Amino acid sequence: MTAQTFLITGAASGIGFGIAKSMGLKGHQVIITDINQQRVDEALTELKKNGVSASGYPLDVTSSKDLDNLMASLNGVRIDVLVNNAGIQHVSRLEDFPMDKWQLILDVLLVGPTRSCQRMLPKMRAQGFGRIINIGSIHGLVASPFKSAYVAAKHGLIGFSKVIALETADTDITINTICPAYVKTALVEKQIADQAKQHGMSEADVIDKIMLEPMPKKSFIDIEEIAHTVEFLASKNARNMTGQALVLDGGWTVK
């Protein structure tokens, strides 16, 4: 695979960091962003320790000003692959769900990728190539209680991607959404505690009876599985795969 430049949001930790590391170790140029400059700097230090060529910028995906600053910094830099990964979560029944938190989740998970795509598409059109890869969720396809904002946003992301796939069908640009079941990240670790509280059960029971119970394979998804899927979607071999939701769910949705 020819070396490409990947721009990854929410890449200072978790899935985003794992994708950045994996792509960098394969010889690609990596540009990471995250909401906090200190976290970006720490992630860059860790990546460079592993021999990854990377640069990084602070980015709040809900901020037009931050996106303006990023685009100005990237002026003249070719971006082959945009990975929309930034995410947050809040677990609560709707009656108790703070509406400002509900709105923020939509702004980060759905409006954020929309803003990024809107800014990046002209560059991709001008160069005649682009890959947009959204890190979605199994919750873009199914629902779980106490996650109304997250489920709504992830469902919306798949619909958004289908529209952009149609709007970019005239050029070598694709957009797809990777939908993993639970990945053992800091975000999921917090969910375990939150769900234990909401359901009135132990954290071990949350893992066994809520997170892994729907999965015939009974296993968390590994970040490397997601990274390899990103690598395929970024390749020329995936040029006719667009508007799709690629499901990594251990059999969750086949039942």
From TrEMBL:
It comes from the Bacteria. GO terms for biological process: monocarboxylic acid metabolic process. The keyword NADP does not apply. The keyword Cytoplasm does not apply. SUPFAM superfamilies: NAD(P)-binding Rossmann-fold domains (SSF51735). PROSITE patterns: ADH_SHORT (PS00061). InterPro entries: 3-OHbutyrate_DH (IPR011294), NAD(P)-bd_dom_sf (IPR036291), Sc_DH/Rdtase_CS (IPR020904), SDR (IPR050259), SDR_fam (IPR002347). Keywords: Oxidoreductase. One of its GO terms (molecular function) is 3-hydroxybutyrate dehydrogenase activity. Signal peptide: none annotated. Its EC number is 1.1.1.30. Belongs to the short-chain dehydrogenases/reductases (SDR) family. PANTHER family: 3-OXOACYL-(ACYL-CARRIER-PROTEIN) REDUCTASE, 3-OXOACYL-[ACYL-CARRIER-PROTEIN] REDUCTASE FABG. NCBIfam families: PHB_DH, PRK12429.1. This is 3-hydroxybutyrate dehydrogenase. It comes from Thalassotalea mangrovi. The lineage of its organism: Bacteria, Pseudomonadati, Pseudomonadota, Gammaproteobacteria, Alteromonadales.
